[in-house]
Amino acid sequence: MADAALRLTTLAEELLGTPLPVRIRAWDGSESGPADAPVLVVRSRRALRRLLWKPGELGLARAWVAGEIDIEGDLYEALDRIAGLLWDRGAETKSAIHPVRDPRVRAAARGLLALAGPWPPPRPPAEEVRRRTGPLHTKRRDKEAISHHYDVGNDFYALVLGPSMVYSCAYFDDSAEGLTLEEAQHAKLELISRKLALREGTRLLDVGCGWGSMAMHAAREYGARVTGVTLSAEQAAYARKRIADEGLTDRVEIRVQDYRDVRDGPYDAISSIGMAEHVGSVQYREYADDLFALLKPGGRLLNHQIARRPEPNEEAYHVDEFIDAYVFPDGELAPVGRTVGTLEEAGFEVRDVESIREHYALTLRQWVANLETNWPEAVRATSRGRARVWQLYMAASALSFEHNKIGVNQVLAVRPGEGGASGMPLRARTWNPTAR
């Protein structure tokens, strides 16, 4: 088909009612659009069929994961331009694929259908989660969701995360030379340790312990006695080996266990770092109640959690389709105010909330750089489709943090002791770690 790019650009702009912000290169080699813009490479008409049958993020994601579309040029700039259509015009974009009244829009949609071909779209890529049934956040369903996200290969995560194996927001500084990713992750673990007032013999529960980095830091640097729980068997095996290699087995225990099944409290402190996003709104009060019950009076909780912006109509809020299908099945983000309110309803006294949104954008950009630098090894460690999922997910998430679409907060809460005593110093914010 001659000059498919021009036809595609013209029809898409008629359908969307706005100029395309990227240049298009179509499957026939033709190009159309702004000469100085990043290039959206449409390798196959299958990509169009995916978009027409599933408008919005999920159709784009399926085409990306399958390798049917790609980006030439700055990935972040291209995603930023495309995201404007989804963030600012999402409802219009989706409804435009099913036009009712405007004859020009109907004609453009028919033209795109003709350009895409008469066949239905291909099956979703193998990396997409199969449709789930049954109640949300049962122990079995949560374990399956965690396995999908984390049991994709420790070697893959090592390439992306670097030696720290910390899969949560790092903590940078404003120094002229800046911190490396490893230094910033160490600073984050140190920040949490100080907020929890860890010391020799402190009994710490690390909920969602990942590959054991927080548990090891608390035991090695502070002499804490740590229990880490995760639902990922691969994470647990990796963490246990690291702990053994550092000679910390007498201080750190790693369990494959749901936090709802932990019964050996009370603990002096609890860290929950990047785990509560998996809990879900229907389960969050039980999560808060369980952690409250596991703490001794005067014990501290550090809840490190991604948050979304509040919606004008919270009842109409929908989980991100791409992330639900490819990254965090059943994961949910809540506004930080709701998180704080639920913790207080469970009996906690919230003592400090620190937003570190910009830090996560910096972290994600470094993870993307690690992935792209180690691309052949990353593909061998998992699959090409899975590597493309993580590349898209992390780059788009970096932009979301930069644009304040989402944030991340450390909430420090206390289980009040006798007479309401908190055990907190009068001037608590003395915990910021040294730069190195």
TrEMBL record:
It is an enzyme of class 2 (transferase). Keywords: Lipid metabolism, Methyltransferase, S-adenosyl-L-methionine, Transferase. SMART domains: PKS_MT. Signal peptide: none annotated. Residues 156-416 form the Polyketide synthase-like methyltransferase domain. The keyword Transcription does not apply. GO terms for molecular function: methyltransferase activity. Residues 122-141 are annotated as: Disordered. InterPro entries: CFA/CMAS, CMAS, MeTfrase_dom, SAM-dependent_MTases_sf. GO terms for biological process: methylation. The keyword Lipid metabolism applies. Gene3D superfamilies: Vaccinia Virus protein VP39. Its EC number is 2.1.1.-. Belongs to the CFA/CMAS family. This is Class I SAM-dependent methyltransferase.
